[in-house]
């Protein structure tokens, strides 16, 4: 996608790490024995919902497309083609700027305001605990400069030696590319990695990579195995 998706903070964004449990029907014999943990960025490690929204809003305005911020909250931002269709259908607007124009303006806004983002405490606690025991990585559909700026803003840049971003892969989530690339860079089989996600698309991506997942939107956290083929 040309610009990161809008993620709302999930229930994992409280002040204490959440317990991890396993449902009986998804019992996992490898629980507690994963070699690595791989984390999504937007909405999982870092609460980026508002900055993503305002970045797109500012980028559109910079190119002469002024829409109510509240309207934009209800529109998918992950795909600029979808956004353009909503603009035409709902607002009667057909922006003349290119997708690249919007991306550049949105990225500039994001990087200038990266200090506004906040960590998701429960997931950050899990990341620190995981890093103390083994390898960790980030697998994101966002722009790499944005991911690194966001991690730096919340004091996590040092924690992740491997960061996979949108420019590193051919297919974005729900394609498995980001997770497969992260596992490859860690030198690990994907099945030995546990993924942390906050969207259905991200969970599908990790499952397609044959990784077990934790969906931070649910409490208590539960390990889910990929569906049987």
Written description of the protein model:
- The protein is of the alpha/beta class.
- It has 2 domains: 20-48 and 118-224, HAD superfamily/HAD-like (Rossmann fold); 50-114, DNA polymerase, domain 1 (Orthogonal Bundle).
- The chain is built from 8 helices and 9 strands.
- The strands form 2 sheets. It has a 7-stranded mixed beta sheet with strand order 1-9-8-7-2-5-6, with helices on both faces. Strands 3-4 form a two-stranded antiparallel ribbon.
Under CATH at level 1, the class of the largest domain stands as Alpha Beta
- Chain-averaged pLDDT: 88
Rg value: 18 Å
What is the count of structural domains?
Answer: 2
Strand content range:
5-15%
* Structural class estimated from helices and strands: alpha/beta
CATH superfamily of the largest domain: HAD superfamily/HAD-like
Seen as an oligomer or otherwise, the chain set is single chain
Total number of strands = 9
Low-confidence stretches: 4-29
- Which CATH architecture of the largest domain would you pick? 3-Layer(aba) Sandwich
Distance between the termini: 27 Å
> Approximately how much helix is present in the residues?
25-40%
CATH topology of the largest domain: Rossmann fold
Strand order of the largest sheet: 1-9-8-7-2-5-6
Q: How do the helices and strands follow one another from N- to C-terminus?
A: EEEHHHHEHEHEHEHEE
Biggest sheet architecture? 7 strands, mixed
């Amino acid at each position: 996608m040309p610009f990161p998706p809008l993620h709302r903070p999930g229930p994992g964004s409280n002040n204490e790490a959440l317990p991890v449990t396993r449902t009986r029907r998804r019992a996992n014999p490898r629980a507690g024995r994963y070699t690595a943990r791989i984390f999504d960025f937007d909405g999982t490690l870092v609460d980026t919902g508002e900055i993503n929204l305002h970045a797109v809003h500012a980028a559109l305005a910079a190119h002469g497309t002024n829409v109510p911020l509240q309207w934009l909250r209800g529109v998918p931002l992950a795909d600029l083609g979808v956004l353009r269709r909503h603009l035409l259908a709902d607002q009667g607007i057909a922006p003349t700027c290119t997708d690249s124009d919007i991306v550049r303006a949105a990225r500039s806004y994001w990087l200038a305001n990266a200090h506004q983002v906040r960590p998701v405490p429960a997931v950050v606690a899990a990341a620190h605990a995981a890093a103390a025991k083994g390898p960790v990585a980030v697998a994101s559909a966002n722009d790499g400069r944005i991911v690194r700026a966001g991690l730096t803003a919340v004091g996590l840049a040092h924690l992740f030696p491997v960061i996979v971003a949108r420019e590193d892969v051919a297919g974005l989530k729900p394609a498995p590319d980001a997770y497969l690339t992260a596992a490859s860079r860690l030198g690990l089989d994907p099945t030995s990695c546990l993924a942390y996600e906050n969207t259905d698309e991200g969970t599908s991506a990790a499952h397609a990579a044959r990784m077990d997942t934790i969906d931070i939107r649910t409490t208590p956290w539960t390990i889910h195995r990929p569906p049987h083929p």
